[in-house]
Amino acid sequence: MDKQIKFSEQPMKVKIIYVAVLAVLCITAVVIGIVSVASKKDEVPDGTENPPVSDGSGENTDNGGDTGEEENKKPEKLTMTSPVVGEITKSHSLDMPVFSTTLNEWRVHTGIDISAAEGSEVFAAASGTVSRVYNDPFLGKTVEITHDGGVVSVYSNLQNTGIEVSEGQAVSAGAKIGLVGDTSLSELADEGHLHFAVKVNGVSVNPLDYISEESQKASLGIAEV
Known about the structure:
Distance between the termini: 115 Å
Radius of gyration: 40 Å
Order of helices and strands: HHEEEEEEEEEEEEH
Strand content: 25-35%
Helix content: 10-25%
Largest sheet: 8 strands, antiparallel
Number of strands: 12
Structural class: alpha+beta
């Protein structure tokens, strides 16, 4: 039988040739693998020449060029004018009670009292829809106007007669809604005034946060706003 020659017994030149051939084969296999992977990454499935871009949340963010500015745009804050001309005799106060001369007790004050003689005209502070006309047991004859953004303006201590708006009626800013009266049982001892309040989504807020600086200076006599 022919004697098998072990690799270790091969001449040095033969060993070098074997090693070189093996090295070339390994390098070739690696190059082929790299080229194959790169080719797969460059491939785009049919019908998806412009694949959608993902923001990592799993949602398709390809909106055809829409930047989403409309969705993120917040509505502007409603700007009002003072419903009457006069000075503020009692401020809005929810944290610190104010003294009620009529009731002889300390109470929170959900609006502002603007001094005005009985019979003075009262105007809508902003455009909206008259949502209520009623007699409040404490604040007297009251008109409520609903505006955009869940904002409601409230006009109290009006005369029972002379109301010029009705529920469901659309009114413009500056439209006459009634006359200052003396119907507020909780403020009878106070001088003539309009009790003006603002609510946002049912929560009382300071009306001065909505009345424009120009109106505060011109109608309410507030020098610095």
